[in-house]
# Entry
Amino acid sequence: MFKLEGKLKFVNVNLVYLQYLHEVCSEVYFKSEDYENKPYLGVLLSQGNRKYVLPLTSAKEKHKLWRNAYPDRFLIYAIENKNQMAKQGVYVDIEGGDTVKHIFAAVDLKKMIPVTDDVLSSVDINSHEDDSDDVKKYKDLLNKEYSFCIRIVDDILTKASRIYDKQMTTGKVTMFSCDFRALETAADIWRDQALKENRRGKTVNLTYITGNYGKYISVKERFEKAGIDIKYSQGEFNEPDVDDIKTISKEKARQAYDMIGTPVFVIDSGFYIEHYPDAPGYPGAFVKRSGISSHVADLLEKMKDVEDRSCYFLDCLTFFDGKDYY
# Structure
């Protein structure tokens, strides 16, 4: 019978570990490109103190056909007034009234996976004054999902235990289900390898925080040549509103360290157009917020009478070990 390790919480799982498990069992959620690192629900403990987490999947059109609950999966939803409907969202009309079922996500118990402590990082769903509008909206969704999961946590534990115990007892892996025994063996190998590397003195606790998985792979390949293993973690940052990439990079590193509690490094970039009309050096550190990369035609129109179109990128990499910045 599963039980909770402490309080129910949302966690992120290291993408390298997910890829590793996916190679063992193709039912583990992972894609090599454009993978949405949706939080996992956990942490569940088996009788042998084996740790498991449950994947959340974003709401999709197919979920409109689902019942609210099945023996092996749940919808996460809320009943809302029709006048609250957003342009983007998955809704099911409720006949005879002014309400709809707003589907936020789904939990598929068959897809739960075993994890080790080193591949987990907590997801911060608490609001902060300096959260951007996008972060506030995302956290609001996570809090709605979390509140729903709290209400059904006993049902989740009961059904997850039933699925796990049946597979481990009979040895039969049902269609679309993860192979728990094979994944537990893989998790043990992962853990033992990490212990061996620690004993050899190999760096295994350096983590690269980025939302770009492709960028992580590029960095990882370069560090491996120096015998340094880099782990991946995805996080949302609250950037200070300053046009200085050094300040932004240091603040991101501090936030990243607070997320996972181990030495981290982050990179912040700026793009500078030296003779941008009325604003030399634009957009600087505000590349993303300026929207310049998605409005190239507007940029060219703005620069049409400028002879010197010199521009450059500037990167600032910051390493933070919890005490000093480098």
In short: DSSP finds eight helices and 13 strands in the chain. The mean pLDDT is 85. The two ends are 47 Å apart (CA to CA). Residues 206-320 form a domain with the Maf protein fold (CATH 3.90.950.10).
